[in-house]
Amino acid sequence: MIFAAGLGTRLKPWTDHHPKALAPVNGKSLLQRNIGYLQQHGIYDVIINVHHFASQIIDAVDGNSGWGSHITISDETDAVLETGGGLKKAAWYFSDEKNFAVMNADILTDMDLTGMIAAHERSGSMATLAVTERETSRYFLFDERNTLCGWENVKTGEQKIARPAEPLRRKAFSGMHIISSSLLPLLVQEGKFSMVDVYLSLAANHTISAYDHTGSHLIDVGKPESLAKAEAFFL
């Protein structure tokens, strides 16, 4: 699943007239690049949630025949549901799958997704989260076994601990998840909610693991200046 419903307020003025998923990087949209990235790792069946300028995304997908993938649209035009609510609305799509990948439309990476999937399958975790050692304002907190224990906002000092452990290690989330379908019935929240809250609510009794891909390229294309940075790495 590709999360493409967000308003993209950090990417103004582009998002005043377009969805951020269609922001161009060297002539290809973020959405096209991420569909191609998934194809490189054998994933050709994708569901995309849409809200902000939804018709532009639908037209781009239809006009390009899904760039070679089989694309399904999860329509959130009535109300944006955030990541958790968006996944819950699209849960039917994964009913016959053991595991599935989820990513944000506004990230570009050359991370070894195949390796991440293999690590998830070996671990038996309910979910595996791609992370790196980088500076940010919000972190997931993991124990020495790379099991999720909590979350922290270093700017506000807010901290949420679901599984007490010492020491706790800060890891920055990369916007890529591998999720077991066994998690889907546990999405008990309703309406608009975040996957961060889902993971923190499950972490005490279920294993949520980290996949550290520090060293690979990762660009959060959330601001206009990051588009230029992305063009230097993703030709």
Structural overview:
This protein has 235 residues and is of the alpha/beta class. The protein has a single domain (2-233), classed as Spore Coat Polysaccharide Biosynthesis Protein SpsA, Chain A, CATH 3.90.550.10. The chain is built from six helices and 14 strands. It has helices at residues 30-40, 54-63, 82-89, 113-123, 195-202, 224-233, and strands at 2-3, 24-25, 28-29, 45-50, 70-75, 99-104, 107-109, 127-132, 138-142, 148-153, 159-161, 169-180, 208-212, 218-220. The strands form three sheets. Strands 1, 4, 5, 6, 8, 9, 10, 11, 12 and 13 form a ten-stranded mixed sheet that branches. A two-stranded antiparallel ribbon has the order 2-3. Helix 3 (82-89) packs across helix 5. The chain is globular, with a radius of gyration of 17 Å. The relative contact order is 0.19. The model has no long low-confidence stretch (mean pLDDT 96).
In short:
By secondary structure, the chain is of the alpha/beta class. It contains six helices and 14 strands.
